[in-house]
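**Sequence, structure tokens**
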Amino acid sequence: MAKFKQEQIIPGVTKTRTNAVKVYCSEAISAGDIISVVGMQGDFMSVAKADANGAVTLNNSLLFVADFAAASGEYLPLALPWKVVTGINTASATIGDPLYLSDTAGSVSLTGSIKVGTVLTVAASGTAIIAPGAMVSQSGAAKGGLISLVGTGAQDYTAELTQPAGTVLTDFGAVLTTAIAGSSGNVKVKLGTNDDGAELVALTDIMSSATSAPIGTGVCISNGAQSEGDASATWVADSPLYTAAARTIYFRTECSATITAGVIAPWINFEYVG
């Protein structure tokens, strides 16, 4: 048997083929796809395109990145633990920003909850390192973005957050990233499984009968943070915290009077339980 010294092995640059795993492709795979182990086909692991909103086996199993394309039914050594991938639209990102598993099967996104990579260059056809197995966690978070509260008279604002399949909600919070200013009134938030619903968190004051609330004020279930209105967010009785299938969580802010300044950012945390 031939023997090699360590210095004789050519080091990887954008990938390491020595770590490639031969797998069975249960569907057609493209180069750079995020793939998930979904079962066994004989002696080989069976893989399919990973999907943030798919079954648990598509987002909470062992994940790889495909080195090259393959047809459905092929057995090939294409599953890599990491690879530098080009052709990703990172124009709105910053170097070092995370990439997440998308709800478009096999793809990545700049938003989401399951981290699978990191942005390396910023461009319409940018570069990223994809290392899904090194970054997937049994817990995760989803953010609702920055929501401007500026408006005349009573206004309501809704943000949608995705809770992945097989997870239980462990926390919810919302914080002002820009101080509120405006007419005297109330600003309340709630969280539900339906649009304008409050199945998870009932209406809770962020600002109560005031004309302003400082940056950083907010509510958070886990740490009991209180708002300007001395309110704390809590789960309602018998909250449906677990979901077997991916679902949309609706965050709603209700402003009773004119707001001239103010931005709020909501989030949820969750844990995979299968």
Notes: The longest strand covers residues 167-192. The chain is about 0% helix and 50% strand. Residues 19-80 form one domain. The radius of gyration is 23 Å.
